[in-house]
Amino acid sequence: MKVIGVVLGGGQGTRLFPLTHERSKPAVPLAGKYRLVDIPISNCLNSDIKQIFVLTQFNSTSLNRHVAQSYKFDMFTDGFVDILAAEQTVDNPNWFQGTADAVRKSMRHIERDADLVLITSGDALYRMDYRPMIQRHLEAKADISIAVIPVDEARAPAFGLLKIDDDRRIVEFREKPKTPGLIHPMASPEHVLARCGVSDPGRRYLASMGIYLFDLQSLDRALARYEQTDFGKEVIPSAIAEQRVFAELYDGYWEDIGTIRAFYDANLALTQPEPPFDFFDSLWPIYTRARFLPAAKLRDCEIDHTIIADGCVISNATIRRSVIGLRSVIAKGAVIEDSILMGCDAYSHHSHTIPTRVHHLTPNIEHGAVVRRAIVDKNAFIGERAVVEPPPDCPDTDGEGFFIRDGIAIIPRGARLPPGFHLARALGAA
């Protein structure tokens, strides 16, 4: 049984702006040293799915580079992780118009003797073995299987909801219903959920995780209507009425990292002593690019509940509940709290030594800088004694060298905040 994995990575990711201003959503850095796309690729590889396509379109350069540099197979295996970029052809001169359209236009590459096609998104944090889903798909003689997660009524409006019968067959689908009158009828029977291992009666709504398993002929039929360009909004509702579509219930940790708040919370949750998602799992590793960086070096620091990635040099700093990304160089007296630093693509060197600098490396967080409740994107520079801390209840704002989203300050990629910069004063002047 040959299974091809397809990772959807072509969307604009507008809700994650400005992190997606120069990169696609699956290329956004995660947990100090990974990228979001590493999660579905690792889940596929750990599930013995060794042939994977990543579909890309918007701002795809960094994603293409990361995949090419991270996932290499030797000559003795038929495994691969290949990029399928949107391309104009004689038959179709248009770019991808949606998730389903992206797969439709890539079918001539995907259908290489495939029996099953597993389609996943590139923007969620979860650990899932796809093999039981494949086995139950075959046992049920399903045409399509959809991974679902039980949620309560409060979270239900954010998802496409699926209702199942006693056999787990999906009988109804509604995309992000907003009113109780539309939500309540989508509750699945309690005895069916209990049989699937869900004992909490408050989580009676099954939300689509954006993970679809098709046999090849069913996928061809589902994509036959060219006017349907999106899986969740169009293809899946039509398929439920015409094909055998079953639910695969997943009851572990799964976080859709589609907004700045979700991204921020998911990263800081990793700093907990027992995080909801654990990268320290030798039986289910998360793969990424091997960079061959030195171990982090710390001197006279106060650090608590913090993740520090490879290649960091930190001197006399205070860091609490934060994620410090690759090659971060943090100078004396800096304070970092409740923040995500994505680090740098390369070290910046200088030719002379002054007391606040270490190893002839120019800090990207300078002497005495304060960073709280912030995301500092790659290659950004925070000047000496600058203060990056959004005021309470601050509305969304676009400023010179900064953004505020969901109460979180974001310093975009490559920005340079001058010495003495103060975010609160900059907001007052804006």
Characterise the protein shown here.
With 430 residues, the chain is an alpha/beta fold. The chain folds into two domains: 3-269, Spore Coat Polysaccharide Biosynthesis Protein SpsA, Chain A (Alpha-Beta Complex); 297-429, UDP N-Acetylglucosamine Acyltransferase, domain 1 (3 Solenoid), CATH 2.160.10. The chain has helices at 38-46, 61-70, 99-110, 131-139, 180-183, 190-195, 216-222, 231-242, 260-269, 423-429, and strands spanning 3-9, 29-30, 34-35, 51-56, 80-85, 116-121, 124-126, 144-151, 160-164, 170-175, 205-215, 245-249, 254-256, 297-299, 302-308, 313-315, 318-324, 329-330, 335-337, 340-341, 370-372, 374-376, 381-382, 387-388, 397-399, 402-405, 408-411, 416-417. The strands form six sheets. Strands 15, 17, 19, 20, 21, 22, 24, 25, 26 and 27 form a ten-stranded mixed sheet that branches. Strands 1, 4, 5, 6, 8, 9, 10, 11 and 12 form a nine-stranded mixed sheet that branches. A three-stranded parallel sheet has the order 14-16-18, with no helix packed on it. A hairpin with a 2-residue loop joins strand 25 (397-399) and strand 26 (402-405). The longest helix is centred in the N-terminal third of the chain and has 12 residues, at 99-110.
